[in-house]
Amino acid sequence: MPTMADVARSAGVSVATVSHVLNETRPVLPHTRQAVLDAVERLGYTPNTLARSLVTSRTRSIGLAVSAISNPYFTEILQGVEAAALEHGYSLLIADPHDDPEHERKVVQLLHERRVDGLIVAPSADPRALLGYLGRHAVPTVLLDRVIDGRADTAPPFDQVCAENTEPMARLVTHLAGLGHRRIGLVAGLPGLSTTGERVIGYRQGLASAGSAFDEDLVIPGNSESAGAEQATAALLSLADPPTALVTANNAMTIGALRTLRAQGLSVPDDIALCCFDDFAWADLFSPRLTAIAQPSRELGAEAVRVLLERLAAPDRPARTVRLPCTFVHRTSCGCREGDGETPTASRVARSERPSRPENPVHAMHPVHPQKGSLS
To answer: CA 239 to CA 236: how far, in whole Å?
Structure first.
């Protein structure tokens, strides 16, 4: 197996120069650097990662802690993180906190003890122990898919990367309202998550824009999981004045809602309209095809890596929050006809006038414009 001394002899330079090129510890003339790289390639030299980390105090590794890795949304985020990390020469260590605050702190501590250069974390609904640990140890961290706001007069303590939530959710509600629905139920996410709070705010904003009153009975948490959504949907349908349309706040809860609707013999959209936050690969294969908000999941993962690498390069720069826009994917579960995108089918709209066409028709894959700034 070739050694660093072999590379130095082949390139006609000192071992120290080879070390500086490989570890990026000191500037080297371009032609000298290229000679070293050519010798590395020619000899098939593989750097000793452990030795390099001792020289540079870097392991070229990133820790990723996200729950529900099997969820297609987080799977795509993982793919984005992995591709971006590999592109920049970083390996990835992955842990699942299981949305449990104490377990979350433990797995993050374990990743930190593995000497990762930085962390990308999707915090649980109660991240106090996690944030306390990260703050005490000054771990370079990007919060992913969650927003932890600081005081109104301060910047957030960590870099944050997430999708827009409020305006896209409002878009779903106003679309349904434009089809004549006045009783729109929301199967909300896990209480305490910033995504849940922002989507509930968007739901209320959508109702207000449509001139509909907010009814707290129409918002029931599905706890961001399929089983919880089954129960929440059943509760909504059991109301004395049940909703004529449903919005589900993530893809897992969409599956749960559909199970309950099928169990009760209800047809979408003939008996009840349905829109969902989170598009997924097979949403286009359902009958009817699901109208959804698509999040830029792979882009979120890649952006989190870019922001983390910027933090590692400039540790003292102010923390920032990056928001990526979502996309409104117009299909037919909302009650619009296939290929039309304007005229609703004869779905059940109780005690309200049903317009022959929505006031503001939208078209498939129309982008939702990002809302400026962070949301509280």
So the answer is: 6
The separation between CA 252 and the C-alpha centre of its own chain, rounded to angstroms, equals 14
Residues 205, 59: Cα–Cα separation, whole Å:
46
Token digits for 301?
A: 């993962």
Q: Which residues are CB-contacts of 34 (< 8 A; sequence separation ≥ 6)?
A: none
Write b or e for each residue in 155-191: b if 16 or more Cβ atoms lie within 10 A of its Cβ, otherwise e.
ebebbbbbbbbbbbbbbbbbbbbbbbbbbbbbbbbbe
Question: How far out from the chain centre does Cα 119 lie?
Answer: 15
- 117 φ/ψ angles, rounded to the nearest 5 degrees: -75, -30
pLDDT in tens, the chain (376 residues): 788 888 899 999 998 898 888 877 788 899 999 999 999 888 888 765 545 554 545 678 999 999 876 678 888 999 999 999 999 989 999 999 988 999 999 999 999 998 899 999 999 999 999 999 999 999 999 999 999 875 444 446 899 999 999 999 999 999 999 999 999 999 999 999 999 999 999 999 999 999 999 999 999 999 999 999 999 999 999 999 999 999 999 999 999 999 999 999 999 999 999 999 999 877 777 788 999 999 999 999 999 999 999 999 999 999 999 999 999 999 999 999 876 554 444 344 433 333 333 333 332 223 333 333 322 2
Burial class from Cβ neighbours inside 10 Å (0-12, 13-18, 19+) for residue 282 reads exposed
Q: Are 221 and 252 in contact (CB under 8 A)?
A: no
Backbone Cα Rg of the chain: 25
Phi, psi of 325 (to 5 degrees): -75, 155
- For 219, the 3-state DSSP assignment is strand
- pTM, two decimals, is 0.76
User: What CA–CA distance (Å, rounded) separates 376 from 372?
Assistant: 12
Query: Could you write out the DSSP letters of every residue in 72-108?
Result: HHHHHHHHHHHHHHHHTT-EEEEE--TT-HHHHHHHH
Calculated CA dihedral for residues 59, 107, 321, 73, nearest 10 degrees? 100
